[in-house]
Amino acid sequence: MILRRDIFQAIADPTRRSILALLASQTITAGAIADQFDGARSTISKHIQILTECGLVESNQQGREIYYQIKIEKMKEIDLWLDQILKIWENRFDNLDTYLEKIQKNKR
């Protein structure tokens, strides 16, 4: 059984978020990804490995090169979670608005 990393832990790192942003616009090799960062190639490779393990990135071999691309369907999990949180907060703000309106009416 392969244990997958949690996608929220993966996106918690700013370098991995930058890699995802890069892959959102293009499919490229690990070397091309590493060229975009100041860190060691081995460090960037580890970030790519983590993103792959959690299912946010997939690799495709073409000849001797391995190309990486973002998996949009997995990114939707993040979007759904954020949408749930947004709805909770919108409800809280609506309740606050209602309460403030009630206070204002009572002052008149």
UniProtKB/TrEMBL annotation:
Residues of the signal peptide: none
Pfam families: HTH_20
Protein keywords: DNA-binding, Transcription, Transcription regulation
SUPFAM superfamilies xrefs: Winged helix' DNA-binding domain
CDD domains assigned: HTH_ARSR
Domain HTH arsR-type, residue spans: 1-93
Protein name according to UniProt: ArsR/SmtB family transcription factor
Record organism: Ohtaekwangia kribbensis
